[in-house]
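Protein: non-specific serine/threonine protein kinase
Species: Cafeteria roenbergensis
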Amino acid sequence: ERRHRRPPLTEPMADASPDSAPASTKQAALLEALERRITGHEARVAAKKERTEALSAALTSSDLSAEEREAMMREHAEMEKVFSRRYRRRFSRADFESLAIVGKGHFGEVHVVRARPSAGEDVAGMIYALKVMRKDHVKSTHKLSTAKAERDVLAEAYDRWVVGLHFAFQDAENLYLVMDYMAGGDLMGLLIAKDTFPEAATRIFAAEMVMAVGSVHAMGYIHRDVKPDNILIDEHGHLKLADLGLATKIDDGDALVAAADAEAKGGSDLGHAEPAAATKAGHRSRRMAFTVCGTCDYMAPEVLLRRGYDKTADWWAVGAIIFECVFGYAPFWAENAEGTARKIVHWRHYLRLPAPSAHLSAECLDFMARLLNKADRRLGRMGTDEVKAHPWFAGIDWKTLGHGDGPYVSAPVAAAASAMQALKTMPATDPGFTDAVKSLTVSFEEARVVPGDAAAAPAKPAAKP
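Structure follows.
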C-alpha cells in the first residue's frame, strides 16, 4: 500500500515550537534570510578566513614537511579562487535546463536540472535539484518560522551527510535553490518497497543517520523534523539529511499539540488505545503520513508537550525510525493523529519491544530503548560520540562509512547513476535523451519529463568575475 508521497525537498519542516513569531515577522525573516544567503559576501569572507586558518593550524601540527605544507596551502588557495568565482556569479533560471519535474508542493515545484554552459565551465553539465518557490505564496503564507528562516546558514557549510545547497538566486516571481539531486529517492520510499529491513542493513542506515544528525548538531542546530521522508538516498545507496529549513508547514500541528496538552492535564477526550502489538496489523498506512498527522510519528514527547526541548529530540526521532525499519510500523502507531500523540505522551505505557531473537539482537533492541527514553536519560544527551559508542555499532568503521555501495542499490537506481553521468554531456536531441531522464528519475513515481525545457531558454555566457 502506497501513501501519497511528499516530494523530497518540496515541503518544509513542521514547527513544534510554541513561541512562534507573528506572521509578519516570520515573512520578513524568511525573505531576509534568503537574501542573506544570496548576497552574503561578508559571511563568505569570514568563512573563507576560518577555513584557511583551520587548515593552517592542522598542517602546523602535522608531520608533513615544510614543502608539503606549502603545496597544500597553494592547492587550498586555488580551490578558494574557484569557490569565489562561483559565488560572484549572478545566476538566473536560464542557466539551468529543466529535465523533469519530480514534485510539486505548497511553495512551488522541484525540478531535476542540468547546468548550462552559461552557468560556468566548472559546473556545466552537473545535475541538480532546483527548488522553485513562488514569492507571492511565500510572502502571503502564515505558516513560516523565524528559526527555520535563519537556518539558511547551514548551506554555507558543505557536509557529506547533509543535502547541500549549491546556489541560490531570485527573480521577480520566484526564489530558487539549487541543491544536491538524490537519485535514490527517500527512506520512506525504500520502506514502502521493502516493508522492513534486516538488522544488518538497518545498522548501516542507523550509523549514517547518526552521522547526519550529528553533523547538524555540530553546526549548532536542532533539525526538529527527522523522519524517513527527510532522509534522502543518493545513487550509491547512502543517506543524506534534507529539509534543514526555510519555512514551516504545520499540518494541523496546533491541534495536535493541544490534544497532547489536554491529555497531559487529564482532560483528554481522545479515547483509549491499547499498546500496539508487533504485528502487520499495526503497520501504518503510508498514505496517511501527510494528511493529519504530519511528523508526529517521530516527535519526542517533550516536543508535543511544549516543555522545551533540545538536540535529544532528534535522537528520539532516530530511535522511532529504526523501530519502523525493523518492525514495519512506527512505534506509537494509532488510527489517527490524536491517538499517536497520546501514545507518545504516555510512551512508557505503549512502547513495546520484543525479546532478542535470531533476527534482532539484544544490542539493537537496547539501542532503540535508550533512544526512545526520557530526555534526561536518553542516549545522545552527552553528544553524538555517546551514540556512536553504543555496542550495537561495534565494528562500524566510522572513517569509511559512506564509501562504496550502501545496503540497497537496486538495478533502477544503478541505472540512474549511469544516466546522471551520461546526461552531463548528452544533447537533448540525442535519441536516448528521454529514456536517460526517465532512468534518472525512476525513484520518483510522479516524475514528469520536461520536453525541451520551454521555461528556460539558453542564456548568454556568464561574465567573467
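Remarks: The beta strands are 96-105, 108-115, 127-134, 165-170, 174-180, 231-233, 239-241, 448-449.
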